[in-house]
């Protein structure tokens, strides 16, 4: 997995830290628990910046190298916060043969953000994802929690406009 | 008395449409008409039919609902349609023809769902209860013979008999490799150890496949029950289900299923008073294709980077946490209870000599009916494409079918009569894989598809062994060179040599099978590679560098929108007169095509 390091400053709260400490407590002595801890940490912070990885390393008593190795191995763990409008276009085979590549390019041109990046104001992020299992609706994309299926190239601008405000 | 049962699809695809809205509209309308005691609503898993509607409007794809006893199938139902359905169908007994699934209606005649071409040719074992029962209600599963197989095994059969039954049935792993399931169980059972594990591979990494997801969403108990049976057969008291985090509905339904089974004493200690203990845990994957590979999956379950390890030792001997472990795919498990209940001979009577039973495929791509199909092994590709799938839409020609995902290959139109089973698919250079079946038409570029899969493997290679890490990258670069129009004839030979090395020298099957998409397209579509290299032409019109963007004078309204977006000033023309693209200046970014509101710009 290629991953880009973040350029956004970390600003976690005390509250989040307490939640993380609780998760670590719960899993500290469970066999093979690093993945669930990282998954829950990502749910708390929205992403896994190096600061959070350090806290987990200390709490779980594993080296930061090991944690960094695991985080960068799996595509689900992200080092960059997602945008307010998080766009993900499916690049699974079913979607790809139905032209999701062109849709990704069009969105990228529309919002001025490259695939895999977040705009510097934190408003948009764009991502090419693996099959999300809705292949019957190909091509598919998601924006935050909304799912759009059988998208046509002409519809892209109209869909994006709904999130522009 | 209940007159009608209404089954509403709450699978991922329908959930993405507005099935919650449909359900609440139904509830309101039924109440409003005082029909509460006559109509029962059941939210089920996926019916398999993901209705294709080329004219759909964004976000309103509609939900599939089936009304029993007659199995009238409504497709694309929106909350606004409910009033009409309730008043016409349920009160006046006149099904609303306008909304009936178009293959289930012919003039005035309605067919039940099972009589449509899509279903008629299927035989459902693994998907038996998907779309029929409420997956969040254990009572419905039990009413459908659920947990009877477990009871039978625990009270009437010795572990050895269970294994013999599975062996005799001829069931082979549905996760890809097709290893005999009974043999795998036998190896693990033969190990002497005080701790063994039963694991389920629900990582479903093949992009374009969603069978396992639908089983888990539509019938989670069938997997839970089968894992307990496996536990009894090999002497394990604990199991793990490793599931993709991308499947939240499936995870949720599994959690509910496990909790309900525990409450009824069908999981946990002293199951059914027989002294047999079995417990299940769920672990979420985190998006790494290689974690579908068995040794990598087990390494990931242990909390590490999911890198594969060399085999032997096989997991059956030394698996999770170093203990004997059986790992099977979701669909493999979904067959187990049926085999126990109906017997090995029943199962072995379906399919071909070496491939017994059925296989579920996720039919997608350029095909009219997309969705899940479960067919007897040995069904021809033609039957799947032309009858069940309803053919290629928009009068395009069928070009190839892709099976096996990034590890598989493309089967050309000339081999459309190939019977689908493990042996025949390998013989034509593809493989069964986990069940993705993507149909491609004349607008799909086969070189680009090979490049697409290699891009995937390069990204997913875990990096542990050199042939896979560097070999796939070099193959990708060659394919990129060819699709960019810079290829030379000797690159084709280089590709073949590299593919052979990667195939033979990689540590795990990810690398060993990565060259399949290239080798199969090189074999069947060599002329397309040559056209890219020699004539610098991409017949399908996909490879950007080999295309020309052209403005169709008769369609161009002369609005100048394209002139304004062109980054290189390649387009000229006056307002309200057809514009022209200067091919010398054009960098083929496609911005003009996307901007044009009159579809006047085409690639050729
Ligand atoms: C790269 C790679 C990816 C795989 N992905 C999956 C998968 O997503 N799901 C699956 O069940 N098996 C997958 N397999 C196959 C597993 O290694 C293993 O054979 C299978 O889970 C065994 O179960 P079965 O005998 O029931 O098929 C994959 C294998 C490889 C090499
Ligand atoms: S390929 Fe896009 S959802 Fe499966």
Could you explain the architecture of this structure?
The complex is a heterodimer of chains A (165) and B (604). In chain A, 42% of the residues lie in helices and 12% in strands. Chain A is built from 7 helices and 5 strands. Chain A has helices spanning 14-27, 34-45, 50-60, 64-73, 93-97, 100-111, 156-161; strands spanning 85-90, 117-118, 124-129, 141-143, 146-148. In chain A, a hairpin with a 2-residue loop joins β4 (141-143) and β5. Chain B has 604 residues and is of the alpha/beta class. Chain B has 5 domains: 4-105, Glutaredoxin, CATH 3.40.30.10; 138-348, 3-Layer(aba) Sandwich (Rossmann fold), CATH 3.40.50; 358-441, Roll (Ubiquitin-like (UB roll)), CATH 3.10.20; 446-535, NADH-ubiquinone oxidoreductase 51kDa subunit, iron-sulphur binding domain (de novo design (two linked rop proteins), Up-down Bundle); 548-603, Alpha-Beta Plaits (2-Layer Sandwich). In chain B, α7 (159-169) packs across α10 (220-234) and α19 (489-505) runs antiparallel to α21 (516-524). The radius of gyration of chain B is 26 Å and the shape is globular. The chains are: A alpha+beta (165), B alpha/beta (604). At the A-B interface, α2, α4, α5, α6 and β5 of A face α1, β13, β17 and α17 of B. The complex binds flavin mononucleotide (FMN) and FE2/S2 (inorganic) cluster (FES). Flavin mononucleotide binds next to β12 and α20 of chain B.
Features:
heterodimer; A: 165 residues; alpha+beta; Glutaredoxin; 2 domains; 7 helices; 5 strands; 42% helix; B: 604 residues; alpha/beta; Ubiquitin-like (UB roll); 5 domains; six-stranded mixed beta sheet; 38% helix; globular; binds flavin mononucleotide; binds FE2/S2 (inorganic) cluster
């Amino acid at each position: 997995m290629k991953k880009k390091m973040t350029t956004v400053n970390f600003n976690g709260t005390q509250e989040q830290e307490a939640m993380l400490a609780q998760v670590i407590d719960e899993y500290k002595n469970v066999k093979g628990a690093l993945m669930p801890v990282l998954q829950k940490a990502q749910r708390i912070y929205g992403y896994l910046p190096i600061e959070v990885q350090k806290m987990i390393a200390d709490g779980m008593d594993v080296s930061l190298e090991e944690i960094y190795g695991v985080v960068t191995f799996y595509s689900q763990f992200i080092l960059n916060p997602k945008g307010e409008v998080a766009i993900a276009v499916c690049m699974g085979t079913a979607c790809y043969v139905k032209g999701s590549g062109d849709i990704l390019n069009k969105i990228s041109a529309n919002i001025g953000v490259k695939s895999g990046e977040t705009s510097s104001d934190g408003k948009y992020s764009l991502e090419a994802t693996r099959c999300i299992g809705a292949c019957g609706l190909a091509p598919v994309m998601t924006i935050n929690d909304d799912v759009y299926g059988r998208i046509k190239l002409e519809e892209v601008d109209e869909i994006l406009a709904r999130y522009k405000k | 008395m209940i007159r009608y049962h209404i089954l509403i699809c709450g699978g991922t695809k329908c959930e993405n449409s507005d099935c919650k809205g449909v359900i609440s509209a139904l509830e309101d309308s039924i109440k409003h008409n005082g029909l509460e005691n006559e109509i029962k609503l059941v939210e089920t898993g996926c019916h398999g039919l993901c209705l294709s509607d080329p004219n759909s409007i964004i976000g309103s794809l509609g939900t599939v609902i089936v009304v029993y006893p007659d199995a009238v199938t409504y497709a694309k139902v929106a909350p606004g349609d409910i009033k009409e359905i309730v008043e016409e169908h349920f009160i006046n007994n006149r099904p609303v023809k306008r909304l009936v699934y178009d293959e289930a209606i012919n003039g005035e005649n309605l067919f039940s769902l099972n009589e449509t071409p899509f279903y008629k040719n299927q035989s459902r074992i693994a998907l038996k209860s998907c779309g029929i029962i409420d997956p969040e209600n254990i009572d419905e599963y039990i009413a459908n013979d659920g947990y009877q197989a477990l009871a039978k095994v625990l009270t009437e059969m010795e572990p050895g008999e269970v294994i013999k039954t599975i062996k005799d049935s001829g069931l082979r792993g549905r996760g890809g490799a097709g290893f005999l399931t009974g043999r795998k169980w036998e190896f693990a059972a033969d190990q002497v150890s005080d701790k063994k594990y039963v694991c389920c591979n629900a990582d479903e990494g093949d992009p374009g496949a969603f069978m396992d997801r639908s089983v888990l969403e539509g019938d989670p108990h069938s997997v839970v029950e089968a894992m307990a049976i496996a536990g009894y057969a090999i002497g394990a008291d604990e199991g793990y289900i490793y599931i993709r985090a991308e499947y939240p509905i499936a995870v949720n339904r599994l959690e509910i299923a496990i909790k309900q089974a525990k409450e009824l004493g069908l999981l946990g200690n002293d199951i059914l008073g027989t002294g047999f203990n079995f417990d299940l845990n769920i672990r979420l994957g985190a998006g790494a294709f290689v974690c579908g590979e068995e040794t990598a999956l087990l390494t990931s379950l242990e909390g590490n980077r999911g890198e594969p390890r060399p085999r032997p030792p096989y997991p059956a001997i030394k698996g999770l946490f170093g203990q004997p472990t059986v790992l099977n795919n979701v669909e493999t498990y979904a067959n187990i209870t049926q085999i126990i209940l109906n017997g090995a001979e029943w199962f072995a009577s379906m399919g071909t000599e070496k491939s017994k039973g059925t296989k579920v495929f996720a039919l997608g791509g350029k095909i009219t009916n997309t969705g899940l199909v479960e067919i007897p092994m040995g069904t021809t590709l033609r039957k799947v494409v032309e009858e069940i799938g309803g053919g290629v839409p928009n009068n395009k020609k069928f070009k190839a079918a892709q099976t096996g995902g990034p590890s598989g290959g493309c089967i050309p139109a000339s081999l459309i009569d190939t019977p689908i089973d493990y042996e025949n698919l390998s013989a034509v250079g593809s493989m069964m894989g986990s069940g993705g079946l993507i149909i491609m038409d004349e607008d799909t570029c086969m070189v680009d598809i090979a490049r697409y899969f290699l891009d995937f493997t390069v990204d997913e290679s875990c990096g542990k062994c050199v042939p896979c890490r560097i070999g796939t990258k070099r193959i990708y670069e060659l394919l990129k060179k060819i699709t960019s129009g810079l290829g030379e004839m000797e690159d084709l030979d280089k590709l073949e040599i590299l593919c052979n090395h990667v195939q033979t020298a990689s540590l795990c099957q990810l690398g060993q099978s990565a060259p399949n998409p290239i080798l199969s397209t090189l074999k069947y579509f060599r002329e397309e590679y040559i056209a890219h290299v020699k004539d610098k032409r991409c017949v399908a019109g996909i490879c950007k560098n080999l295309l020309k963007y052209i403005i169709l004078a008769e369609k161009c309204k002369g609005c100048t929108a394209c002139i304004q977006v062109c980054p290189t000033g390649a387009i000229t023309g006056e307002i309200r007169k057809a514009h022209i693209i200067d091919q010398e200046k054009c960098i083929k970014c496609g911005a003009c095509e996307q901007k044009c509101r009159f579809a006047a710009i085409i690639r050729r």
